[in-house]
Amino acid sequence: MAPRPKKTTPAEVEPPAAFTVARDLPLGRHPILVAFPGLDKLPLGQRIVKDPVARKELYEETRVEIVAEDMWMYVAPHEVPKVTRGRWNPVVSPGTDCIVIGESHLRESSRLMLFMDIYHELCHVVQRKGGANLFEPGVSYVKRWTEVEAYRYVVDEARRLGVSDAFLREYLKVEWISDAEHRELLAELGVPAA
Q1: Could you tell me if 156 and 166 are in contact, meaning their C-beta atoms sit under 8 angstroms apart?
Q2: How far is CA 107 from CA 1, 5, 21, 92, in A?
Q3: 7 pLDDT more than 80
Q4: Which helix (H) or strand (E) holds 75?
């Protein structure tokens, strides 16, 4: 949801072979299916929205913006959230659903990490389309239903692919949560704490 530094955990399994990434796209805004061709055809991409008309709209209208910052991905807010003013200067995308991606993440991260991240962020786009506040003030990151739901969506798929608990623990460790919150998130998602 917010920028985070690049992790160096290597992928131990691969996402579906049909998952492709246009790693050489220039900085700027692009249709999501230009950055991730065929994303909508994968089983996970089909399940994200059951209704085929709404699913087609999701993939046709969602954009990605590649930025030079050293970060992962987040859904660009339509306006700067009040709770983040002064602490975070996000890309803002009024009226358009846009997933912001750090250039180094797109070019260097494992396919598995990109697979999990792009679907996590797409979950947030779907949630926001349904009226959810992705930046709910006063609610801990690990207690936001939007985060738990999006993480559960990708963790369940990662487990189906055979991803280890060690990888999932690292994937779920983000620098703006405490060790106690990390353990809470692991417990919520059924990932052993080690």
Answers
A1: no
A2: 19, 14, 9, 23
A3: no
A4: strand 73-75
